[in-house]
Every structure is written in C-alpha cells, then in structure tokens.
Amino acid sequence: MEQTQFMTLARHIIEEQSKYPGATGELSKLLHDLSLAAKVISLEVNKAGLADIIGFTGDNNVHGEQVKKLDVFAHDMMVRAMEHGGHLSVMASEEEEDIIRIPNKFKIGKYVLLFDPLDGSSNIDANVSIGTIFSIYRRVSPDGSHGTMEDCTQQGIKQVAAGYVIYGSSTMLVYTAGAGTHGFTLDPAFGEFILSHPNIQTPKKSKIYSINEGNYLYWHPGLKKYIKYLQDEDKASKRPYSARYIGSMVADIHRNLLYGGIFMYPADSRNPDGKLRLQYECNPMAFIVEQAGGRASNGKQRVMEIKPEKLHQRVPIFIGSEEDVKTVEKFIAESEVTVS
Ligand code: P6P
Predict the structure, then answer these.
(1) Which CATH number fits domain 208-339: 3.20.20.70, 3.40.190.80, 3.30.420.100, 2.130.10.10?
(2) Was domain 9-197 assigned CATH 3.30.540.10?
(3) Which of 133, 80, 151 is closest to 249 using CA atoms?
(4) Helices and strands of the chain, counted as H and E runs
(5) Is the per-residue pLDDT at 2 higher than 70?
(6) CB 81 within 8 A of CB 102
(7) What confidence tier does 20 reach under pLDDT thresholds 50, 70, 90?
(8) How far is the CA of 142 from the centre of ligand 1 (A)?
(9) What does the alpha-carbon distance between residue 9 and residue 43 come to, in Å, rounded to a whole number?
(10) Residues in a beta bridge with 69
C-alpha cells in the first residue's frame, strides 16, 4: 500500500476543498461534524456487547423492522451532532418517516444530509461489522427557509459528498467529495481518523460475488443464468467465483471495494423493488464506488440517474467491479429479449 504521510481526515477534507474555487469551507465543517458523530457511535458500538444497550427497544421503525437500541442511539447521535452546525437546511434518516426539520434556534445552511444511522443492525448481537452511511446534497429550495422534501429526493448525480463508517475490527471512514474515494482508519489512541487508503481504485474485474442465494427461487431468469455462469469453471475468466455474503451492506461493499467484487440486492418476485433504499444506501454507495472506478446500476440504469419518487424508495442494486456489473446487465438484457 502507498506510503501515506500522517494525514488526518480534517486536514484531508480542507485540502480537498481547496481544489474547488469558491469553496466556503462549510462542507469541510459538515464532514468534520459527521466524523465526530462517527467517533461517538463507534464507542457505543464497540462496547455494545458490555452495556445493556443490546436488545430490541420493542419499537418498530418506519419499515416495520424491529429496532435495536443501538439504531436509536446512532440516529439520535447523528441528529444531535448535525443539527446545530448551521450547515444544513434539512436532514432525513432511514429511521424516520418524514424529513427532519432543523430547530428554529439553529442557523439554516445550504446542505442536505441523508443518512442510514446503523445499517446492518440486525447483525449487532452477532458482533458482525455494521455501518453508518451518509449522503450530502446542496439544497434546491430557496436559501434561508427550512429545507423541503424536494431537497431530500434529488437524483444521486447531484450528491456533493457521500461516505460510510464501518464499525469492524477497526473503525474506518470512507468518503468521496467527487475527487476520488479515500479511506481513513480511526486511531483510538488519540481519536483521529488517519488516511490509510488514499484514492481507492476498485479492481475492474473480480472473483467475488455477494448475494443472498436463499432468494434464488424468486430471481429473474437472467440473474439465475448469471449466477450459474459465475459458478461454472473457466480459468481464463477466473471462474468459479467465490461467494462472500455477510448480510451487512457496508461490510460487503467495503470488502468488495478493496478486493474487487460484485454486490447484488436484486428485485425478485416477492420484492419487485428489491430491499435497499435509494436515498440512504444505494446512491451514497454508488457515488463512492463510481469514484473508485466501479459501477452501480439497478440492472438497467445507473443508480445515480434514477429520479426518486419517494423518500424511502427501494431499488434493485448491482454494484462493484465495473466489468462484473456490465456482465450481469448483459445477462438480464439478453434474458428479457428471449423472455419477451
Ligand atoms: P438480507 C441489513 O439488514 C440490510 O439492510 C443490508 O445491510 C444488507 O445488505 C441486507 O439488508 C441483507 O438483507 O435479505 O440478505 O438479509
């Protein structure tokens, strides 16, 4: 790995922003506030096994999924850490039905923050890596007033920054502001995110595929053919691929980003839109992976070009190594031709 000078996240963000003439430094401060929230959530996640924080609150979130206390903590921490900075006009969380208004006592800013506070939380009790995902837009509603639903349902191509924090054997923050994708590892000794993975480039072709094969029966015929293709032997194209599926999107995509791989959460006959949310999971991950030289589509169209209709909209996603995503798109297209 390229030797990196001792670069903190704060310094990296400022240096990145200095590349953009007219940058006011507001985005830098916003990302800095996000990194503070990440440190606090990391502390709680890493001691969840000790505290009584594990276990269900007994409540259900907007999607009817049982909510773990850590989900609630992470959501509350993100809101509290971000609402007072004066950089945001509005927020939206995967854990909350409606958009989150900035309290009147705080200054209204020009950015919009969408986040999944703790993705993969059903894995908390098994100590599996989980993560926070965030996506930042510039507001489209008039300055000075409170942000709107329209601010929160912009196409992914309008993102100004996106990132995730993975709480695993170490805590890492991976982000892009449109000039490459960069990874920082939290040094717990002095609580700083240090640049460990500058300008990540994901392999164009891989030998790893990630999908919940328990849904095989319900898949599109083209997808069934593609998975069978990956399992056939062909040394020239490094087949059979290895199946790697953690069931935590941040963990699966992080591994594939570094090693190469394709992650798939497709539509199926039971879930015509798939499972993962466009605004909180798919768009930020698509921005990150594309900036690392990868590809992200819904099987037919670039994820970031999908026009959101609803805040919590779900979309199918095929994301990762560019050549692998293009291959599955081809299988789907060909099978649609034969099927129609
Ligand atoms: P399944 C976790 O609940 C999550 O939202 C993603 O992190 C993960 O990729 C997916 O759902 C796993 O879903 O249906 O395979 O358990």
Answers:
(1) 3.40.190.80
(2) yes
(3) 133
(4) 8, 15
(5) no
(6) no
(7) confident
(8) 37
(9) 18
(10) none
Angle, nearest 10°, between helix axes 221-231 and 322-339?
130
CB atoms within 10 A of CB 252: 24
Q: Of 143, 178, 134, whose CA–CA distance to 16 is shortest? A: 178
The model's pTM:
0.93
Please tell me if the CB atom of residue 254 comes closer than 6 angstroms to any atom of ligand 1. Answer: no
Where are any strands of DSSP class E within 148-272?
A: 159-167, 171-176, 181-187, 192-197, 208-210, 242-243, 262-265
State in Å: Cα 128 to ligand 1 middle: 12
Contact 284, 119 (CB under 8 A): no
Domain boundaries, the chain: 9-197, 208-339
Cα(121)–Cα(71) distance, integer angstroms = 7
Confirm or reject: Cβ of 248 under 6 Å from ligand 1.
Answer: yes
Q: Is the CB of 249 under 6 A from ligand 1?
A: yes
CA distance 129 to 264: 18
Q: Name 210's Cβ contacts closer than 8 Å, sequence gap at least 6.
A: 243, 244, 245, 246, 252, 256, 261, 262, 263, 264, 320
Distance (angstroms) between ligand 1 centre and the Cα of 121 equals: 9
If we measure between CA atoms, which residue out of 301, 263, 321 comes closest to residue 157? 301
Which of 94, 213, 265, 285 for mutating ligand 1's site (highest number of atoms within 8 Å of CB)?
A: 265
pLDDT digits 0-9 by tens, 124-178: 888 899 999 999 999 999 998 999 999 999 999 999 999 999 999 999 999 999 9
Q: How many CB atoms lie within 10 A of CB 207?
A: 17
Amino acid (1-letter code) at residue 138 = R
Pocket test for ligand 1, best of 249, 254, 262, 271 (most atoms within 8 A of CB): 249
Report whether residue 71 contacts ligand 1, using a CB cutoff of 6 Å: no
Under 8 Å CB-to-CB from 223, ≥6 apart: which residues? 264, 266, 328, 331, 332
CA 189 to chain centre: 27
